[in-house]
Amino acid sequence: LTPTGSTSTKVELRGNVLLLECIAAGLPTPVIRWIKEGGELPVNRTFFENFKKTLKIIDVSEADSGNYKCIARNILGSAHHVISVTVKAAPYWITAPRNLVLSPGEDGTLICRANGNPKPDISWLANGVPI
Q1: Which residues form the Ig-like domain (predicted)?
Q2: pLDDT exceeds cutoff 90 at 15
């Protein structure tokens, strides 16, 4: 089974295509199956190529991080390999701040919600000066 060993790691960026490859040799030719440990392969974004040697997940998100196992099996036995996938993400808006127009003495709230992996730090500045 290629990759060799029992585990390997893969890092992908949010929004990209995740490609995981598992090549098995044997006689009779092994059948390859993919699973996500502790979860399900994403519906409508998962595709298999090269007779299931390649697992392809499009538009990956942080929720796609986890351990993916390829299992190669024929009538004489099986082999497996676990690929630990981490999806990193540049900061992105969950709720972007919006302009706020207030009258003198009126209260207002600015909301800023962002996410990413690693989790971004949020700083507030007024006219370029931290507040």
Answers
A1: 3-88, 91-131
A2: yes
